[in-house]
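A.,

Following up on our hallway conversation. Structure tokens first:
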């Protein structure tokens, strides 16, 4: 004859609360670390984009003896494939072109884009605003 034992299948409320508490603590530790690594990755992309655009501006100047009027000139003349998206503003049109700092007596052909900066108003992990990178 089969006897039935007390079959308590499942978890008690205390066990479920303990597991949920442990998961909450682990999530509270992991989320800030994840966000920090995400910001570091965006900063790395920003630094590389700025380097590539500045390199393209220098190549444009070396070939044509003048700076490009806008970043679109770099794409039109095949110095860049596309204008990269700013990783912090997530827009292509937020880059700021800085004109060359020359005096009227300088014999340098002008152009509108001597240097490029991010259009973001955020401050980097190192304390320097992205607009000054």
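Then the amino acids I'd put at each of the 133 positions:
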């Amino acid at each position: 004859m089969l006897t039935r034992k007390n079959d308590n299948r499942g978890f008690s409320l205390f066990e479920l609360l303990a597991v949920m508490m442990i998961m909450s603590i682990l999530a509270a530790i992991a989320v800030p670390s994840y966000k920090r690594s995400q910001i570091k990755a965006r900063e790395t992309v920003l630094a590389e984009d700025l380097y590539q655009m500045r390199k393209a501006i220098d190549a444009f100047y070396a070939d044509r003896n003048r700076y490009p009027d806008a970043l679109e000139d770099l794409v039109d003349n095949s110095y860049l494939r596309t204008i990269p998206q700013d990783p912090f503003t997530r827009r292509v049109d937020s880059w700021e072109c800085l004109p060359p700092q020359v005096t009227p007596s300088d014999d340098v052909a002008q152009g509108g884009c001597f240097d490029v900066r991010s259009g973001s108003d955020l401050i980097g992990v190192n304390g320097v605003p992205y607009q000054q990178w």
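The chain has two helices and two strands. Curious whether your intuition agrees with the design.

B.
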